[in-house]
Amino acid sequence: MQSMTRRTLLGSALLAGLAACARPSDGSSPATTGSDGGSAAAALTLGLTYVPDIQFAPAYVADKLGWFTEEGVSVTLRHHGANESLLGALQTGDEQVVFAGGGEMLQGRSEGVTVRNFATAYQTYPATIIVPADSPIQSFADLRGHSVGLPGEYGENWFYLLAVLAQSGLSRDDIDVASIGYTQFAALSGGKVDAVVGFLNNEVVRFNEAGFAVRTISLDDPPLVSAGLGATDATIAERPADLVGLLTALTRGAELCASDPEQAVQLSVDYVPTLAEPDQQAHALAVLKATTELYGGQFGVQNPGRWEAMAGFFADSGLVSSPVPAGDAYTTQIVAR
């Protein structure tokens, strides 16, 4: 099984897409931003993985408005380099918390990384199958004999496609899997593939903005856990109050993003360089509105049944080097406090 590296979670896969690029680490050290105040003992570095993007607006809002400090934690927001290992900074202690997919953390756990998800941000899994509006593909079964494009055979898009195949009675041999990088829009609109795997809060938004009519075909309840916050077992055991403070401030940020996305975009301008352009602000607003719909009723809440389902699915699909009990991959300790 390939080693875990940072591929953008939702990044330019929410900037280009919530997907990823498995590449070897180059030891890059990206710039950081942080809130003032708080004691050194309460310092936390939050790894936001890959380039600055509006998907991380709850963190930007919480930082800009001083909510981390109000909760007694001094938080540094750190974006990973494009070639950086997803969980590498967590392992070295350069980060105490990382924003990543639940499946990625489960994979990391199987490889000996003591990462554990303590809050799930997206209660709705963001991936979906996207086809042109006039496509003859009306259901998953109709994918048989057709080409399906996605960034590559890794990350959340890949997990989703495997879940689609498993739940629809298809095998990989029944479709033509095309690794197209983060070119879902060009590939589908240009007729290079018959369908793509993309994200509700990224590719679907881009198709709509471009006026290219599409339909989505989605699983009702995929056995997958999406983006959330992870920390090592040691950090969770030794610093629960700090993690509660972090999560409380992020929850406030998420609530503002949902209630006033226009303000959230403006508060994020200092953190996302591209937002200096008005057209990018309009796009970010559309992405943020779609993203907040994924939060569900409670930002960070855990779904034990879904974790159990994912642990079994990953083991059955060969997505982990060794099976991982669901209870080893997540905790409700922080959300419940």
UniProtKB/TrEMBL annotation:
GO biological process, one term: thiamine biosynthetic process
Top-rank lineage group of the source organism: Bacteria
One Pfam family here: NMT1
Keyword tags: Signal
Residues in the signal sequence: 1-22
Residue span(s) of domain SsuA/THI5-like: 55-264
Keyword Signal: yes
Protein name as annotated: ABC transporter substrate-binding protein
Species this protein is from: Brooklawnia propionicigenes
